[in-house]
Automatic annotation (TrEMBL):
It comes from the Bacteria. The keyword Transmembrane helix applies. Residues 118-129 have a biased composition (Polar residues). Keywords: Membrane, Transmembrane, Transmembrane helix. Pfam families: DUF3302. This is GTPase. It comes from Shewanella japonica. Residues 105-129 are annotated as: Disordered. The chain crosses the membrane at residues 6-25, 46-66.
Amino acid sequence: MFLDYFALGLLFFVALVIFYGVIAIHDIPYEIAKKRNHPQQDALHIAGWVSLFTMHAIWPFLWIWATLYREDRGWGFSNGKKRELILEGEVRELMEKVEDLNQRLASIETPKTDKVSENTTEQQPKQEV
């Protein structure tokens, strides 16, 4: 009689451990993504839950998706920080060129407006009624 209850308890315990293990395993890609500060960690978490219904058929792809991104180098296809520095330099150069062009444009427009205002003041006294 005792062994029957022990076997039943052991059966429930094993079923519970397997159930919890499956749920814990499906969350591994999300934990990796969270640790790496992955930009799509919410999508990975939802896809992990979907993988429960597909019997973990997509789970290896989730693992790959989560491990591709690293905060220090981005997606791993190129050096992300180096590219950012290059782009920052290019943006800085372009901003300097735009500022230079704005100054040139301001210096070109200023004399024209002075000449126009001089011509209008000269024409007003000539028109006497």
